[in-house]
Design a protein that fits this description.
mainly alpha; de novo design (two linked rop proteins); 198 residues; 74% helix; 6 helices
Length: 198
C-alpha cells in the first residue's frame, strides 16, 4: 500500500512540475505578446500624429493662393487612404502589415512631393507655422522609426520564446503563433536618385 501511495505521490509531483512549467511558459508568452501589441499601438500612434500634422500642414500650404492644387489633392487623398487602413492587434499578419505599410508609403510619397513643391514658394518657406510643422513632421518621422524598431524588438523576443526549447514543445498545446515583423519598404535598400532641376 505504501508503494502505491509513493508511486501516486511521485506521479502527482511530476504532473504538477510539468503543469507549472507549462503555466510559466504560457504566462511569459502572454506577457511578450502583449508587450509587442502595445509597441504596435505606439507605431500606430506615431503614424496618427503624422497624419494630424499633415492636416495642419495642408491648411497652412492652402493659404498660398497660387500653390499647386493637384499636389495638395494628392496629399489629402493619400492621407485619407492611410487613415482608413487600421490593424487589429490580434491579427498582425504579414499581409495586414504590408497593406498598412503600403498606405503609409503612399502618404510619404505625396508628402515628399509637397515638400519639393514648397521650395518654389519663398513666402511659404519663411512662414513660421509652416517651419514649425515641418520640424514637427521630421521629429515624428524619427518617432515612427524608433517605434517600429521597438515593435520588432518585442516581436523578436516573443518569437524566440516560442521557438526555443522548451517553448517549442509547449507551443503545440497553445494557440500562440509567431508574429510578423515590420519590414522595410520594398526598394528601400537601393539608393534613390536625386535630380535637381532648375
Amino acid at each position: 500500500m505504501k508503494k502505491v501511495l509513493l508511486v501516486v505521490a511521485v506521479l502527482i509531483g511530476i504532473v504538477l512540475f510539468f503543469f507549472s512549467l507549462f503555466i510559466s511558459f504560457k504566462n511569459t508568452a502572454v506577457e511578450y505578446e502583449e508587450n509587442a501589441k502595445t509597441k504596435w499601438s505606439k507605431v500606430e500612434s506615431a503614424y496618427q500624429r503624422r497624419n494630424d500634422l499633415i492636416g495642419n500642414l495642408v491648411k497652412t500650404v492652402q493659404g498660398a493662393a497660387d500653390f499647386e492644387k493637384s499636389t495638395l489633392t494628392d496629399v489629402i487623398n493619400a492621407r485619407a487612404k492611410a487613415t482608413a487602413v487600421t490593424l487589429n492587434t490580434g491579427d498582425l499578419s504579414a499581409a495586414n502589415l504590408a497593406k498598412f505599410q503600403q498606405a503609409q508609403q503612399g502618404l510619404s510619397g505625396a508628402l515628399s512631393k509637397l515638400m519639393v513643391s514648397v521650395e518654389r514658394y519663398p513666402d511659404l518657406k519663411a512662414n513660421r507655422n509652416f517651419l514649425e510643422l515641418q520640424s514637427q513632421l521630421e521629429g515624428t518621422e524619427n518617432r515612427i522609426s524608433v517605434a517600429r524598431d521597438r515593435y520588432n524588438d518585442d516581436v523578436n523576443l516573443f518569437n524566440k520564446h516560442l521557438k526555443k526549447f522548451p517553448g517549442s514543445f509547449w507551443v503545440g498545446f497553445t494557440d500562440f503563433k509567431e508574429m510578423d515583423r515590420y519590414k522595410a519598404d520594398k526598394g528601400s535598400e537601393k539608393a534613390r536618385d536625386v535630380n535637381f532641376k532648375f
